[in-house]
Amino acid sequence: LCWYYKMRENIERNRGGVPKGNLGWPLIGETLDFIASGFTSRPVSFMDKRKLLHGKVFKTHLLGTPIIVSTDPDVNKVVLQNIGHIFVPAYPKSIRELLGEHSILQMNGNLQKRVHALIGGFFRSPQLKTRITTHIKNSVKITLASWQDMQLLHVQEETKKITFEVLVSVLMSVGPGEDLDFLKREFEEFIKGLICLPVKFPGTRLYKSLKAKERLLKMVKKIVEERKLAIEKTDRKGIPKDALDVLLRDSEEASENQSLPLDFIGGNIIEMMIPGEETVPMAMTLAVKFLSDCPVALHQLMEENMELKKQKKDSGEDYNWTDYLSLPFTQNVISETLRLANIINGVWRKALKDIDIKGYLIPKGWCVLVSFISVHMNEEIYQNPYLFDPWRWEKLGAAVNNSFTPFGGGQRLCPGLELSRLEISIFLHHLVTTYKWIASEDKIVYFPTVKMKKKLPIKAETLEVLSPHQKGATGNGICTIASKQ
Ligand code: HEM
């Protein structure tokens, strides 16, 4: 009976056909409207308008492709879980060109599962977290110490200094110095082409980015070869020190036809930098932005972290990774930042077969945009969705599992999830226990990726030198609504 009613519901909703919607103008479809909404403070307005007209799942035409957009958490879950391998990633052409077909971000089936499990297992391991915590802490402290001499600093730049070094360290253990500077320079040149016109002849953006990738590959190839030799010589069986070690060792142990070629390993190490490079510093930057606009939250965050700092000082013990993750309000601030920031606003997939989800037909060859932002900003799930409200997580907890997907979900759930949360926690801890700051006016821009228009300029002062009357929370005492920045 239950099955019957479900089926009736589906048929009544959509008659089991391709979701309703409008394909817009020939060739450009509804792309201009989509991009225009990305330049407003409410990028989700594109989805909201169509959701009202056609329902939670609708069809449209974006960036040259007819596409089905899902703003329904249940449909999103099915697409992300991808049982039966019906969906494959579908990136715009410029991204596909730059990634190469063997990148973890594009590959499918067993190889993706294997690399995902290896990298995810390593990033989640307590051994890595123990080691990397000291590294992150030092990196954060060095950056924060340099703020003392700065009149005005840009949070978006400063946080990048911390996270790039950590990222390169967990991937291939390159420490500060010429090699790291080279990687940073070339990687920045490489990713400039991720969203550009897909034309590649000398002088075009895509061409320059492909050249930068060649230079990166050359350098990483050398690192991979040296490491392989070192592994063979020492026959090391201990704890792997980075992702490169993990992939090389797995390859050594695999049978000949399962072994991963060195070029594949080098390419993937570079490509794994893409999802990690801008996301973590943006999350840190937006946390600072939201906290600056919500002094009550900042004050509670500071108190919670001061308590931990005091405990550590009194006991004389050093911080370990579990300390940083043990503070409930700090974790709620991070969840709320990720919900509101929508650093990755959704993912694109392509259906290899016809599939019916909740009565919506997704025909073979169609793309699906799994929209995370529409769910994160849905007022039926999150009351006052534009309000930065870390306290909402005290009530929500695990109840919103399907509706909270800043790190994606299912088969491709971000392997850097725990590492990212740890990095952000360490940054926030040392920031709010060392500094008070005043943020200048700035705006969040959502297109093509989330950024602060002026890189979030702030004036920071160490807590010790603040005069007593400055010792309240910064700002006007109430949380502002994110869309009104
Ligand atoms: C706040 C920070 C981060 C956010 C919001 C984020 C978000 C995401 C999302 C939404 C996906 C799913 C993509 C898809 O389904 O196609 C993803 C995948 C991925 N992320 Fe992250 N990420 C973050 C940090 C990191 C870091 C630090 C690393 C690496 C050290 C990383 C490595 C990856 C990799 C390798 C994948 C691809 C997994 C696969 O396709 O099997 N991410 N990330």
From TrEMBL:
Q: Which Pfam families match?
A: p450 (PF00067)
Topology in membrane: Single-pass membrane protein
Q: Which PROSITE patterns match?
A: CYTOCHROME_P450
Q: Which domain of life is it from?
A: Eukaryota
Xref: CDD domains: CYP90-like
Give the UniProt subcellular location, in the record's own words. Answer: Membrane
Q: Which UniProt keywords apply?
A: Heme, Iron, Membrane, Metal-binding, Monooxygenase, Oxidoreductase, Signal, Transmembrane, Transmembrane helix
Write out the similarity annotation. Belongs to the cytochrome P450 family.
User: What protein name does the entry list?
Assistant: 3-epi-6-deoxocathasterone 23-monooxygenase
What species was this sequence derived from? Hibiscus sabdariffa
